[in-house]
Amino acid sequence: MSTRFKSRDPGVSWFDWIMTFALSWLTAGLFLDVWAHAHITVLETFFTSWHAVFYSGFCIVSGVLFTAMFINQRRGLYWVDSVPRGYWLASLGVLVFSLGGVGDMFWHIQFGVETSIEATFSPTHLLLAVGMGLMFTGPFRSAWHRKDTEKARWINWLPVVLSLVYLVSLTSILTAFSHPIVNPLAGIRFHPSGELAKEVGVIGIVVTTSIITSATQLTLIRWTPPLGTFTVFFSLNSALVGFISSEYPVLLVVGVGISGVFADLIAYALKPSRTKPVAFRIFAFVVPGLWAAFYFIAIEVSDGIWWAIHLWGGAVFLSAITGWLISYLLIPPLLVSDIRPTKS
Question: Is 136 in the same domain as 265?
Answer without folding.
Answer: no
